[in-house]
Amino acid sequence: MPKGLSMVAADQLWKAYVVSEDNSKDAWTNKWNWILEEYEKLHQKLDEISKTADYPKPPPDVRSLKPFPNSVNHEYGWVCANPEFRLEKYGPDIMKPMPLPKDN
Known about the structure:
Layout: H1 7-52
């Protein structure tokens, strides 16, 4: 409660705040509800298009996580030991900086 306000005044301010929130919600709905309807129409059109579209399918993942380690915490990081699951496919740094010019 702000300093210098009685409990009655603070309660009245809170009620006014709640009423203004409700009024703002109703005003927004009256003014901008049309855009929600437009988005719904757009969503339906995109759903129809995506159902009939022929997207290329990714190749199936043939990697295997087996053998699974037999331990209590399952050896944190054991998957990255397998080269198929490493994030760095091309090495730790594929961009090498140019050498600095030599002094004369």
